[in-house]
Write a structure and sequence with these properties.
This protein is an all-alpha fold. 69% of the residues lie in helices and 0% in strands. The chain has helices at residues 22-52, 58-85, 94-100, 113-140, 145-171.
Length: 176
């Protein structure tokens, strides 16, 4: 049974005729909207850390965080466009993203470098778990192998970025 979400715009769009029922399209769009809000929030957090990193590892982490921000923004755009291609209006305000996100932020808190990296690792892993669940729901609940494939691609990208962060911690002799 497809979910409905008040965060999805009620603006009428043309329902795509791509072999999925409207209820299935709506269900996938609910999942994708949650993913969009979460990835956007992780991007904002990553950019904040990029701006506020200090210490001996400034240059390396400043560059790594900026690269990861760019990757996350590409994923955000892909998700938003996928939602549109499925006949829904994409969420796009900070308020919507905050309500949809599973990623938590701490306003005014600027942790030391090690904590920034460990925090981002935890966030990437949380997104991986959510994306894994969403990919299974997409195919098993909503009959959408294309959305499953989309999530699998995102998981590959997120997994690599989490590895880069974990490796940074391991090189310091620390474990998350």
């Amino acid at each position: 049974m497809a979910e409905t979400d008040p965060m999805l715009s009620s603006q009428k769009t043309i329902t795509p005729d791509i072999g999925l029922e409207e209820a299935d399209l709506n269900g996938v769009n609910v999942l994708l909207s949650k993913a969009l809000g979460s990835v956007y929030t992780l991007g904002a957090k990553t950019k904040k850390y990029h701006w506020n990193i200090t210490g001996q590892e400034f240059q390396q982490l400043h560059e790594l965080f900026d690269e990861q921000y760019s990757i996350l923004q590409t994923i955000v755009d892909d998700i938003a466009e996928y939602i549109r291609s499925y006949g829904a209006m994409s969420p796009g305000t900070l308020e919507e993203f905050q309500q949809l996100s599973v990623i938590e932020e701490k306003a005014g808190y600027n942790p030391p470098a090690f904590e920034m990296v460990a925090d981002l690792v935890a966030d990437y892993e949380q997104l991986m778990r959510m994306f894994r669940e969403h990919s299974q729901l997409a195919v098993n609940e909503y009959n959408d192998v294309q959305a499953e494939d989309l999530y699998i691609g995102f998981m590959h990208t997120l997994s690599k970025q989490a590895w880069f962060l974990r490796s940074h911690l391991e090189n310091q002799g620390k474990n998350v």
